[in-house]
Amino acid sequence: MSFGQIGYDLAHLLGGGVLLMSFVLLYQRRMAAVINAFAIQGTLLALAAAWAAHAQGAPGLYVTAVLALAAKGVLIPLALHAIVRRLDLHRAVETALGIGLSMVAGVALVALSILVVLPATEGVRAVARENLALALSVVLLGMLMMITRRNAISQVIGLMSLENGLILAAIGVAGMPLVVELSTAALVLMIAVVAGVFFFQIRERFDTLDTGSLEEHRGERR
Amino acid sequence: MPLQWIIVFFPWAGALALAAIPDLRRAVAANVAVSAVTFAMAIALTAMPFAEHGWTRTDALNTPFVLVAAFVGLTTAVFSAATLEAEGFDHWRIRAYHAAYQVFMGAQTLALLADNLGVMWVAIEIATLATVSMVAVHRTASAFEAAWKFFILCGVGIALALFGTIVLYLAAQPLLTEETGLSWAALMGVAARCDPGTLNLAFAFLLLGYGTKAGLVPLHSWLPDAHAEGPVPISAVLSGLLLNAAMLAVLRAKSIVGANPEAIAPGPFLLALGLASVLLGSLALWRRRDARRFFGWSSIEHMGIAAFAFGLGGAAANLAGLLHLLGHSLVKSAVFFGVGRAAQAKGSQKIADIGGLVATHPALGWGLALAIAGIAGLPPFLLFVSEFRLLAAAAAAAERPWLALLLALGMVVALAALVTVLQALCFGPPTPDAADAPGGWRSVAAAAPLWLHLAVAAGLALAMPAGLAAMLAQAARIIG
To answer: Which residues are in coiled coils (chain A) (predicted)?
Structure first.
């Protein structure tokens, strides 16, 4: 289990690609483009997992790669496209925070995660800690997306891109037990199912997927 | 198969069977039967010596919680059998409700018993997903808002907890062998030699992640709404059980980080989050108009008290914290049984619409009054013992005795709010009834769980069995 120079570079290239797609997710305004960016992120994650499987000599990670490709690269994006078409949202343009501002916030979050992770993990191998910094950036950007978007589908994509960051972190740690990755993948699917049910029910009630319209119903009005 | 696994898989098998029963009468009877068998297994588990089996373990820390979880699961199933008709479910929702209930109970037990931190994480996520769908089951606008908030906030929280778990493994990885993986016992064994910086990072994420699920401020805002929507039995198990499982996960993380002398001391973080929850929770009680949201906020306050106790550390404070979690489970679910029945009788869960219960429904009114007094920390219930012991331990803490003052302030503010609501709900002028009280066996089955919980909470406070006391004292040392 040795990391040559190419292995080191390629792992970072793919991790960086996943992070780049997080930025793309932040600034896309059309629903269809957001879903496509999420699909590309899922595919890059699958490649990163496959490369980690090869480099670490851990065949279990190929399973993670296949699951990530099937679920996040193909099935969930297709389902989301179907929902968007069915609800006639594909021309919708939405953003709650200006694009420039969300880019600045995104860069600040990446800087924050590097400043937090690198000094804190000095006792750990270099490839693992740099990978961890990338993964934490993806997690934080996913959260930023959930905060800045008001559309229910975008919020769920933010959550799933956050979970992409988690898997990126898990595959970077050599020898991480497979149970976590398998279950994560399975549970993301379940989350998507639950969320799908929600979309339809929210639509039925409010004629919009804008979660801002939910905030009236706290049950505490006089 | 060891009993520790059967007690997890049996409710899940029961969930499959319950999903196939569309008839209300048979479904509620089967639900009670499954819960009763689970409770019997929990008692048997208590009598067995502590052991590890694969991904699960029993020790002094989790065994009392498994027992209380199975007990509350059984009484809640009985309560649900008596009151479910009033929810007006069609046969699909009857199936979904009972299946989700048993999936939740199995996942809850697994979360408590898990030795592997990855398995614990998965179990808490399954328990969350099972309850999210139940919160939304009435399909009103407020139910959707509550479920959406629950789903999104807990989704983020649970994601942070997984990140923390991964970082924890990264810290311990050079010292672990292939088989032990994420075992808590193995991590405890090597914790003292782990890289302290990485451990700190892991603890920050685990505390924030599982703290969200435990309802600690500042990530608490899902909790009151999730407790106020959905069927009443779900509020009882959410508040009584799920919060304990999340708090236990925080304690497992704390014990690992605490075992490394070079890592940051985890205590002050728990103290800060706990104190913030106590103060915000007790102040927020004064602004509530919805009875179930009111008691949801009270859960935030009580989780804050428990977190404060564990943050203070030491045998006395830890013991007080454990007693507080157990007492809160028993008394808070009793409160929800009472409030749920009152809301059904009066046709509204607004505090202003429920009044004078003692005059119109004497058994319910007095039971609810005693339960609210118990949750306020008045004697003779278990929460009085735990709050008294905690204040004594906090005042005796040499470095920061002023913390006891802040804690007492929060407790008094909450006590005053609870007494005000107690008087409004139970005494005061009676409000008109909207529905007839259930007759026959239902009236007994709906009232019995409340009084049984009160009796157990008072019994444990007045005469704690020696075996349980010894177990809790041992658990207080495990937390460190």
So the answer is: none
